[in-house]
Here is the input.
Amino acid sequence: MKISKLSLILAAAAAVVFGLGGISFAFTGGGFHNGGVAECTGCHQMHNSPNVNLLIAVDDSTTCLTCHGASGQSSYHVASPVNDMPAGTPPNNEGPGGDFGWLQKSYLFTVSGVAATDLGQTHGHNIIAAGYDNGYLANPDPDFPTAPGGTFPSASLSCTSCHDMHGKGRYLTTGLYAKTGQSIYTSGSYGALPSTAITGELMATGVYRLLRGGGDTVGTVTFTSNPPVAVVNSTYNRSEYFTQTRTAYGTGMSTFCGTCHPQMHGIGTVGSTHPQDVQMSSTVQGNYNSYVKSGDLTGSATTSYLSLVPFEENLTYSTTNINTLKSHAQTDNSFLNGPGSGTVSATPFVMCLSCHRAHASGWANMFRWNNQVTNITVGGAYPTGNDAGFGRTSAEVAKAYYDYNVTKWSASQRVLCNKCHAMD
Here is the structure.
């Protein structure tokens, strides 16, 4: 008995020591973020923490990046460290949200003989993580003191501006969204449903990616709508050279983004922004489904999906809809149906993430493709160096497209606006 007690004491002491070093290793119960968010001691240090709120790191984002700030293609990594990205080497992570490592990649090049720059700060959300990896995420966006089209201060932007660090949002067995009530037993990102199967107790699921909603107030903004509805396969952080990673977006993403960027969504303006959170017209759906590549409009509605130009399926939260989205969220090209085909809604929506990535991308303004050139391929290859390559190496260009096989494009492939507009 004494030996057993001593073992427990030593184990607890080891946990404290590792906590002081910012190392989180308590992955019990099927996943660190199951049960809403995480074990308290994964992020907080109970005694002698020098940081605000007893965090294991200097601020919220640095605490998140203790686990998420790596470049190995584990599902949850979202920020490649500087030492893994020497000049000419791209960030490694290829999750749907993008790798914050692109913020570290600035390019100097020439276009038609004129010097130009593509600075890392333009590649994504400049979250503040003062203690992370030599501080490349320590400074606010120097170009925008507030969110473009909004009032949220850039100096306050952190992971927890968009994600609820305590994961209180949940969907109950009734299908309703709530902040309290039934216990959360698992993540809401991968298609799990509220359940009564665990010891007969009614149990809830978390929301997609712990995203905020339902009245959460962060700084100067309030998330007035429920969190976005979506499902992704758990092996989402992967190369798309052979097969695509399909995130099945249901609804709510543009409203979520609009919390900080209201004027970017046309509020107070007329005709000055691209339509978002609106139904794709029959013409646009037809273009999407027929478009294969520049010069080729012979595509099929059952094989037309392109992860570089996703869309929302206009499905709100329900058991049936989550099951539908889960069946669509594949990584093996087994479900490539486009809008209005098969079990895909006939009323799909254009959303912010149809063109942008949520975290960061390899291109300016968080675009999924280089939107500042005419062609994204030249002579059947991804361009490198100056002009159309924008100063990037072949490895960097390919990674910015998530390794999408260049042979699937036209030899002179136009930008991917044409997936919906077919003007090439």
In short: The chain has nine helices and 13 strands. The mean pLDDT is 90. The radius of gyration is 22 Å.
